[in-house]
Design goal:
CATH superfamily of the largest domain: HAD superfamily/HAD-like
Mean pLDDT: 94
Number of domains: 2
CATH topology of the largest domain: Rossmann fold
Structural class: alpha/beta
Largest sheet: 6 strands, parallel
CATH architecture of the largest domain: 3-Layer(aba) Sandwich
Number of strands: 6
Number of helices: 9
Distance between the termini: 31 Å
Strand content: 5-15%
Amino acid sequence: MNENAIPPAAVLWDMDGTLIDTEPYWIRAEIELCAAHGVEWSREDAISLIGNALDVSALALQDRGLDLEVSAIIDALLVQVTADVRAHTPWMDDARRLLDRVVAHQIPCALVTMSYAYLADALIEQCDVFGAVVTGENVTNGKPHPESYLTAANVLGVPIERCLAIEDSPSGIRSAHASGAKVVGIRRLMPIDPLPGLSRVRTLDSLDDDAIAAIMGGTVIDEIGDDE
C-alpha cells in the first residue's frame, strides 16, 4: 500500500467464482449427477444455486427428484469438482494478481467458502497463504448468514469492520455484508444487486491501493450502476 493508504486488517476471500473459476465444474457435476439418475437439471438451475451452502444445493437436487441422501449428493459433487481442480486449477487472473499483491503487503488473508475442506485443500496445496480457512462444514449457518465471515475474522483476531471481503455471488455478498465487513462484489456469472455500502466492480484489477483505501474509509465504488 502507498504510505497514505489505510490498509484493511485482513482480506477475506470467497473461493468458487471469486478466486478460481470452478462454477463450470459445479454446473457440469450437478447436471451429470442428475442425468445419471434420470433427473433433468439445467445450467440455469445450477446457476441459481451459486454461493449456497452445499446442503442447501443438495436439498434442491432432492426436491427436483434426485433420490440420494444429502451426504451422498455432496460427496459425489465434491469428488468430481475436486478432481477437476486438481487436474486444472482455473485461477481468475484478476483475483490472483490482487491476492499476490495483498500477500506482498503482508496483509492477512482468510479463505471463506461454502465448499468443504476436501476441495479447499486442493487450492491451499498450491497457494498456502491463508491465515484462516472457513469451510462449509465449519459453520452451523451457511451463507447468506454472516457466521462464516465472523468466524474468519475471529480466527485472524481482527475486527470484522476492518476487513475487506471479496465475493461474487448474491448469497456470499449478503453474508459478508451482514457481517459488517467492507464488501466488494465482483461481477462474474450472476448479477449483483446494490446494497448500502457495497462496492461493485467488473474486474478486481480496479482495486488498486487508493481504491482499497477509499473503500476501507467508507467510499463506495460502483462500476456497474444501473446496468444489471
